[in-house]
Amino acid sequence: MLHATDLLGGEAYDRDGHFVGHITELFIEPADQPNRVARALLGRGKYLPLVARYDNFAFVAPGVLRLNVEEKQLEHYQPNEGWLAMRKDLLDQQIIDTNGRKVVRVNDIDLSENRTNGTVELRVTQVDVGLTGAARRLLHGVASPELVRSLARKLPTRVILWEFVNLIEPDPLRRVKLRITPQKLERMHPADLADIMEKLSPVERQSIVASVDEETAAEALAELDKRLTTQIVETMDPERAADILEEMDPDQAADVLAGLTPESSREVLREMPGEDAREVRELLKFDENSAGGMMNTDFIYVGEKSTRDEVVAWIREKDVNLEQLDTVFLIDEDAIYSGAVPVGRLLFAPAGERMESLKTEPLLSVLPDADQKEVFEIFDKYNLHSLAVVNEAGHPMGAIEVDDVVTRLRNR
Amino acid sequence: MAMLGKHGKAKRAAENLAAVTRWKLVPEWVEPWRARLSEWNKRTRIWRRRLLLFLAVVGPGVITSNVDNDAGGISVYSQAGAMYGYALLWSLIPMTIALYVTEEMCARMGVVTGKGLSDLIREEFGFRPTFFIILAGLVVDMGNVAAEFAGVAASMQIFGISKYISVPIAALAVWFLVMGGTSRVVEKIFLAACVLYLSYVASAILAKPDWLLAAKSTVIPSMQFNGGYLLMLTALIGTTIAPWQFFYLQAGFVEKRVARRQYKQARADVMVGSISCMAIVFFIIVCTAATLHVSGHLVINDASEAAQSLVPLAGKWAGSLFAFGLLNASLFAASILPLSTAHVICEGMGFEAGMDHKFNDAPIFYSLYTGMILVGAAVILIPNAPLQKILVFSQVGNGIWLPVVLVFMLLLVNRRDLMGDQVNTSTFNLIAWITVIGVIALTFVLVYVTLFHSGSVPGLSP
User: Fold this and answer.
1) Which of A277, B166, B361, B365 could bond to B353 as cystine, CB 3.0-4.6 Å?
2) ipTM beyond 0.85?
3) Which fold would CATH assign to domain A182-285?
């Protein structure tokens, strides 16, 4: 197994054994092959550097590269944004480990050698983020290769397979050229993605939010530290910010908007479709630390006289977040809040059972201006997962979920 | 049916009624005062809002600058005042400028890039330079930490407490602070410690100095061209600008997640810090100048000797306040220096760092911190510890480390791809480069002299 540290700085010779230059950089062309070392940049001091292609590599060993062509057949170097440079773009830079779900710094790059009819193919297998890579970088050129190798064997290894490496590139055009796709990021749990984003610089955070789809961005922003969310949303275009906020629950969107300056908040609300903007504006009216500031206006309520089967069929049709659904609220003929049915009871009830017979006792609700401390007490006392918020007339306005309670309690 | 919100509202309505009746029972003459208070509130609203915005950001600048006045620093300043009276005060204004210029660059980098100095050096200059900076930092800071614990021991000795009691207690206190605290709590404690530096102001006032002469000496430069004077000048500058400050400052702003639009407040924080730091130095020098220099007691070896010598000259309070200031400074620095070093090492090597993490999330960070405190305290507790040699060693190490870090900083802060349009303006660059070259030159002089001519300056000899 070869390493980038072994090759970078090494000497390159052409077919006739003449010294061509020092290997100053190794490039990957992601548009062509995602892990093959496609080019080697050979520096020649005061002369212009030359580039050797992968099919020119005849022999590779630590510190040595032998080509199968003559020096005059090599091209001159032209910078190309579509080439991923190992030394400049990868070594010592931060990357996202999509498997381990964290941000790490690259110490070294491991390469595999593959001999095929006269040429050597080098491919990147994994990235070294541990002590072996650090030791090798430190001692390369200073201590003998055998010493370095034996030391590296004794140290614990930490590597990340190349397929789990997600590069962080702020420039959107270059992201396209380097084929950096956001799919692996989109598949991560939003809390993990938020954790990763907290470790990055503001520019890099911005680039992640710009590259993933709106749904992922919304979920990640909802989990992110409020200060960072505010910074990110303020720097974005109002249209994009509105697109992302639409994907959030109205109460989460209201929380984000509450952190912006009034002008920015107004700009974003202007870009949101009327219905959503109105809901969020309503929520913004409530004090942050009251039941109204905690509640979600996106909740399920059905008539108390409907049957279990009707309700299940109705839920199937609606675009509901099933992971968060734990209670169905009931209203009577005058649309007054009349009860809560846990989804568990709904699941096992016989088909024709009326919803009003499935509700839990006692009937609990709070007014929007109730203090959050009262809300915490109620959740604790009655072991609730959701609590309905009703207005003075008794009509349901929203529901408070237990995860909001947990987040608030942690932040106190 | 339980409509709890309603119950609460009814309860509140009843309370409000009681409040109204209560108000009526208050005498009439309270009313105009209440009105004046709400008037004042209205008029100062903008001012108060700006203050709150500033207070949200303040911290790293003020703390870093004040920790500058640690045990080693106070020793040098006391000696400067004792030996040369007010003659060195003119150097304070240039030093404030130098301090502000260098610290501001780090503050700017931290706010704009959101990354620590170690991180940036690693990303832009590679692994080996980062490793050596880290190694130098570790070695030098260990020496400094030992010096701080020596300061604790010396100041407590004045109050009659043996170092075998004071140092372990201090070490434990400092260790608990960081292990148990979050960055916000610890920052508040550090800010309180900064306020306690005012004991030097009191001390100086009690020394009854010639304020007019002191003021004149601060504004009018007066060079003496003898070796001792120049060396003292060099030593003054050497203790003011230390590399660990830059790492700590930048990491502080990054950890606080200061946004780009709060940059003005961050800059104000650095300015307040630099000025307050130099103000304290002024009072320390004035204090010893007015007492020790005037009475002919020209040679003192360190700060605790200064505190003791103050007692017969300016009274017990002056001496005690001076010693208390030394204790405060030493404890303060003993907590911050290992913290800064742990940050530098972890950031550069890619380990998790920061007081907000639990021990298991950042084991290397906390272990490094613990280790440095243990070694620092242990060195002082060894009988006949070669303290002066350690101090000299860390001063020399500082001198070697400092130029490298300063040059890296200047290179980084001028990179457009990192800083966008917040790179140095040409004027700032001019001032910055002059400052840096000046500081480097003086530091080399200090190192050279410390290594080869150390007999000529008391307090610097091994």
Assistant:
1) B365
2) no
3) MgtE N-terminal fold (1.25.60)
